[in-house]
């Protein structure tokens, strides 16, 4: 990144004093709300703008077109254990056990634990990568053992197998 493009946080972006710039910005802002935004890299390849960045561009353009300044700054968001557990899809108690085992860094500024969003997302990415690698290894082992070459049973065969299992279970319980 060149010195002129270095980002200083926080950074204030002031609206233009040029009337032509303001009217151009108003027109662009109206289109930004209805259309998908694409970016083009140095090689000319176009990609859609990710939704978070699109929302930031839309909000910035709207505020600037209204003559307002915009301040950009990073936010090291911290989460409660309830919020973090919800993001991971686990119970709060499970998350507490994970924190106590040192799987996810946290702080305790008061009696409550606080988790940085960046730390939580990094844990989520690493476990997802591990799960995907394990799954790929299992699929590979299954393919090499020929487990995926087993033909599926016909519906009649499946129905007979289910009926047989149910009969065995009812015989064990003594229900007829």
From TrEMBL:
The keyword DNA-binding applies. InterPro entries: DNA-bd_dom_put_sf, HTH_17, SinI_DNA-bd. Keywords: DNA-binding. The lineage of its organism: Bacteria, Bacillati, Actinomycetota, Actinomycetes, Bifidobacteriales. One of its GO terms (molecular function) is DNA binding. It comes from Bifidobacterium callitrichidarum. It holds the Pfam family HTH_17. This is DNA-binding protein. Residues 79-126 form the Helix-turn-helix domain. Transmembrane segments: none annotated. The keyword DNA-binding applies.
């Amino acid at each position: 990144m060149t010195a002129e493009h270095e980002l200083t946080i926080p950074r204030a972006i002031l609206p233009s004093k040029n009337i032509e710039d303001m009217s151009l910005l108003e027109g662009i802002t109206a289109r930004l709300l209805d259309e998908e935004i694409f970016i083009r890299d140095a090689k000319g390849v176009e990609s859609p703008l990710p939704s978070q960045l699109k929302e930031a561009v839309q909000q910035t353009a709207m505020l600037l077109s209204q003559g307002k300044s915009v301040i950009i700054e990073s936010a090291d968001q911290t989460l409660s254990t309830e919020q973090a557990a919800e993001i991971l899809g686990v119970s709060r108690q499970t998350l507490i056990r994970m924190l106590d085992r040192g799987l996810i860094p946290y702080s305790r500024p008061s009696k409550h634990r606080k988790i940085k969003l960046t730390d939580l997302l990094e844990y989520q990415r690493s476990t997802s990568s591990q799960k995907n690698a394990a799954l790929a290894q299992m699929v590979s082992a299954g393919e090499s053992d020929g487990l995926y070459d087993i033909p599926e049973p016909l519906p009649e065969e499946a129905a007979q197998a289910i009926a047989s299992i149910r009969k065995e279970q009812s015989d064990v319980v003594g229900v007829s």
